[in-house]
Design goal:
By secondary structure, the chain is mainly beta. Strands 1, 2, 3, 29, 30 and 31 form a six-stranded antiparallel sheet that branches. Strands 16, 17, 18, 19 and 20 form a five-stranded antiparallel sheet that branches. The radius of gyration is 23 Å and the shape is globular.
């Protein structure tokens, strides 16, 4: 999302030993709309958008950022008389392709009600009527998840037998943009055992595959597996493991995986498991062409007990080679943490993790999406009974936030000595550097340089915004001097 200059100018910074995350002020969604299971995506017009449910009204809500400093009034997506099933740990899901947004939800009732889809064709400004997804005779469908490619829609959800047992994930496909759905096909039957019966899945598609990642239950071993279709979801004939920790528990963990396709042949997944009976989170990369794992990293935070870790979510932005992930764990009470890497698994370090809430009470169930190197995060605030949204950047993220901009890089930040700003030099244009303090006052300028170095003697300690102009093209970023 392109962030206006005046919005960046009020950023605050928190430091960790190896990496700096800079975070914006939080934006709150009115508590009248609830706060269960928030999800975040970006619209086709580069606005953050949120999806969540209200446990009070059993309604499904969607809200879109106004591009400046707040979210538009939430839209209720379920029709009157159709309550939405919601849980703390799972709920509705949505996907974005171009100007189209596809949201799926389960009607309230464990053994009643169907799976429905509702679609917007105008970047979330309005939504159409609901469409029934499932073809089930009884209403045991649960935990829908949606993916889309070229306006073909795939919805995964959990099915059961007529008695509500033998949970298995199935996939229904629409080839007409969500107007109608083909009968669902069983996706998880090639795995031993059954699906873990209260854990949400993640479905993903690209030009070659439909991949469903889920928590399996094989005689109470509840590890993360993936099933693959190579015929656009008509059949699922291949599977592989993303998790071999052999987590044995007699009760459902109520926490599913999150995953993203990386390029044309790799998958990155994040999930909860246990190590020596303690909660643990892992990030795993798998090469689907080679049929082998590229490695796994345990998520840790330096200086904490790493207790009660749960509900991890991740995103990957290929253009920035940027991996970002969030989760909840014990802080002052329950807090939301973030970590990131621009070099894949190798760049994940416990010292880079940051508590982004760090408040008494409970802030949890986060979700994340990355655009232009900016991390957009939503989470549930149980203290205020509402949702919170904020943006973060890191000191290794590329800064290029203007539509008519060019790439610029700043390092190191924070600095106690010298900050260097490098940028893409445009042919035939001189450059002008302007530096502003957080009140918006111009405090420093230079021109006609191929790169810029600013020393601590030039400015006081504090946070600064810079712009580099070359003709009509502008790039902007931020840095900090410390004592």
């Amino acid at each position: 999302m392109k962030i206006p200059f005046l919005f960046i100018a009020v950023l605050t910074t928190a430091l960790v030993s190896a990496q700096t995350f800079t975070k914006s002020p939080t934006i709150s969604i009115d508590a009248d709309y609830g706060f269960y299971h928030p999800q975040i995506e970006m619209t086709g017009d580069d606005k953050a958008c949120l999806l969540w449910t209200s446990s009070d009204s059993l309604d499904l809500y969607f809200a879109k950022h106004n591009g400046v400093d707040d979210f538009n009034t939430p839209l209720k997506l379920n029709p009157n008389g159709v309550d939405v099933q919601d849980f703390v740990w799972s709920g509705a899901d949505f996907a974005v392709e171009g100007t189209n947004i596809y949201a799926v939800f389960k009607q309230a009732g464990y053994s009643t009600g169907g799976i429905y889809l509702v679609k917007s064709t105008d970047n979330g400004d309005s939504f159409g009527d609901t469409v029934r997804v499932d073809d089930l005779a009884v209403g045991y469908g649960q935990y829908p998840d949606v993916a889309v490619l070229n306006d073909t829609v795939w919805v995964a959800f959990m099915d059961h037998n007529a008695s509500g047992g033998d949970p298995q994930y199935v996939v229904a496909r629409s080839i007409d943009g969500g107007l109608s759905f083909e009968p669902e096909v069983i996706a998880g039957a090639i795995l031993p055992g059954e699906a873990c019966d209260c854990c949400q899945p993640e479905i993903m598609v690209d030009a070659n595959r439909v991949v469903l990642v889920l928590r399996n239950n094989n005689s109470n071993v509840r590890d993360i597996k993936a099933v693959v279709s190579s015929d656009r979801g008509a059949t699922f004939s291949n599977s592989f493991s993303l998790d071999d920790h052999n987590w044995v528990t007699n009760s459902c963990p109520s926490t599913g995986p999150d995953a993203r396709l990386i390029g044309s042949d790799k998958i990155m997944a994040i999930y909860k498991s246990t190590v020596l009976s303690n909660a643990a989170i892992f990030v795993h990369e798998y090469d689907m062409v080679a049929g082998s794992s590229n490695g796994e990293v345990q998520v840790l935070v330096t200086g904490t007990t790493n207790a009660l870790m749960n509900y991890p979510q991740l995103d990957y932005e290929a253009s920035e080679s940027m991996l970002g992930f969030v989760w909840e764990q014990a802080g002052d009470a329950t807090d939301v943490y973030i970590n990131a890497s621009s070099t894949g698994l190798n760049g994940i370090s416990a010292s880079n993790a940051m508590n982004i809430t760090n408040e008494p009470g409970t802030q949890n169930k986060p979700d994340i999406i990355i655009r232009n190197g900016v991390f957009h995060v939503v989470y549930a605030d149980y203290n205020e009974q509402n949702l919170k949204y904020l943006q973060l950047t890191s000191n290794f993220a590329k800064i290029d936030k203007l539509t008519n901009g060019f790439e610029s890089f700043v390092y190191p930040s924070p600095s106690s000595d010298v900050v260097t700003i490098e940028f893409e030099k445009l042919e035939g244009s001189n450059s002008i550097l302007q530096v502003y303090d957080i009140s918006g006052q111009l405090v420093y300028s230079k021109s006609e340089q191929s790169s810029y170095q600013i020393t601590k003697s030039d400015l006081n300690s504090g946070e600064y915004i810079f712009t580099i102009s070359q003709g009509e093209s502008i790039s902007q970023g931020q840095f900090q001097f410390v004592d």
